[in-house]
What we know:
By secondary structure, chain A is mainly beta. Helix content of chain A is 0%, strand content 55%. Chain A is globular.
Amino acid sequence: QKEVEQDPGPLSVPEGAIVSLNCTYSNSAFQYFMWYRQYSRKGPELLMYTYSSGNKEDGRFTAQVDKSSKYISLFIRDSQPSDSATYLCAMTGGYQKVTFGTGTKLQVIP
Amino acid sequence: GAVVSQHPSRVICKSGTSVKIECRSLDFQATTMFWYRQFPKKSLMLMATSNEGSKATYEQGVEKDKFLINHASLTLSTLTVTSAHPEDSSFYICSTLAGVNEQFFGPGTRLTVL
């Protein structure tokens, strides 16, 4: 079993839709959770960073962590074509080494 | 967040040659940098952790003699792919560690070995 599971997609949604991206994990030591956005042929860009369980909101983005279920989510409200990218979840127990999901490719159709 | 640059962004080389990739932290003194490799439709694979002034720590299965890492200053880490072969063709990305666990990535270098 992989430490982090993420549906690769692709996920296609119409502009303005609410997008839900998810990851599950198996390592209960993970405490810090990140979401990265990666455009084609570019490096990943940090979107959200959360510690332990709970929600964090930043503009149109909301990150949710449920440690009891080992499940994290990223919600994108009012999705835009510019949100089309691959979204990677990432997590760590706090000892520098970060484990990444495989990424979900999102396409927002105008 | 921290700004990280990589050079070159793209390189094509002949089999058997060596290629050096630079990773620079432009606005942050990076004690620790990471080097990743990414295959199409695959996750980022950590190759090594680079610490300024000391030897890099390589992940299991990564040949340290093939992927030479030097972190001589707080703003520069280099990855040299020695005697490159077509199977080394990949997207190489570096990152710096800022704060507790936040990593900021460079734009990546696409290496193609003919």
